[in-house]
User: Which sequence fits this backbone?
């Protein structure tokens, strides 16, 4: 009996491994619309905590690839490094996902200008173009749509309430177009998001009762006290101007801000 199979194909020119997520993919695949949740779509990329339904959109989860952790991740926008400085570079900037035309995730075989051995990501932003176009999108997840995985085993360990999303919504609007046709374009977007996240084994203790006694009373009777909530809000505007200096050269300037607020005054942890 004779078996035949195709010869393996080996790229002898480069060992680089990159995955391009274009705008069609970003719009079609359900995700939390963050660079971390999009990274879950790439083979070989692992996250420190999975992002389920946007549960990690405000408290970042971290990348790892081929054993290299979050501090080895590099994020660029149009080639410009935007890495954060917290956690030795582990904490990344909060980019407005609407601005991304395509995202390139490189997991191996970095080029000479690559400064880290982990995941290297380049976000290619939108320019605006020669016609006016825009859009709007929104999402909402009421608490009633969410299940409860507080099992008997967890209760036996003293867990009285699990982490979850109590209320989540976000909306994003965008607009782009020409200022001078074939020469100068603009693009702008604005994202607003709000997440209420009850935190496991936290309570709003009764007023006028010392905290140790109040916490003990709440823990002894699960459901008798309101669960502590991490109230998280984000406003994320971006404005980009692009000038076609010559047929082969562009000059772009952009401002991308993430105005993030985390309020924990509603809970005693």
Assistant:
């Amino acid at each position: 009996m004779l078996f035949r199979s195709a010869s393996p194909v080996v790229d002898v020119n480069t060992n680089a491994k990159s995955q391009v997520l274009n705008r069609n993919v970003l719009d079609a695949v359900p995700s939390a619309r963050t660079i971390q949740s999009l990274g879950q779509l790439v083979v070989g990329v692992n996250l420190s905590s999975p992002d389920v339904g946007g549960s990690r959109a405000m408290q970042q989860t971290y990348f790892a690839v081929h054993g290299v952790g979050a501090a080895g991740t590099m994020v660029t926008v149009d080639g410009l490094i935007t890495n954060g400085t917290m956690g030795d570079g582990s904490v990344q900037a909060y980019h407005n996902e609407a601005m991304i035309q395509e995202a390139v995730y490189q997991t191996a075989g970095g080029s000479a200008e690559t400064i880290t051995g982990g995941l290297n990501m380049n976000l290619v932003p939108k320019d605006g173009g020669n016609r006016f176009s825009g859009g709007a999108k929104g999402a909402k997840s009421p608490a009633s749509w969410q299940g409860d995985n507080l099992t008997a085993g967890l209760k036996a360990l003293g867990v009285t309430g699990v982490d979850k999303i109590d209320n989540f919504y976000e909306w994003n609007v965008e607009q782009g177009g020409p200022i001078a046709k074939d020469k100068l374009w603009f693009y702008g977007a604005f994202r607003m998001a709000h997440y209420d996240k009850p935190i496991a084994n936290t309570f709003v203790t009764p007023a006028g009762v010392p905290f140790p006694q109040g916490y003990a009373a709440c823990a002894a009777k699960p459901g008798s006290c309101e669960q502590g909530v991490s109230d998280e809000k984000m406003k994320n505007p971006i404005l980009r101007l692009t000038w076609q200096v010559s047929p082969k050269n562009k000059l772009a300037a952009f401002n991308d801000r993430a105005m993030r607020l985390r309020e924990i005054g509603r809970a005693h942890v």
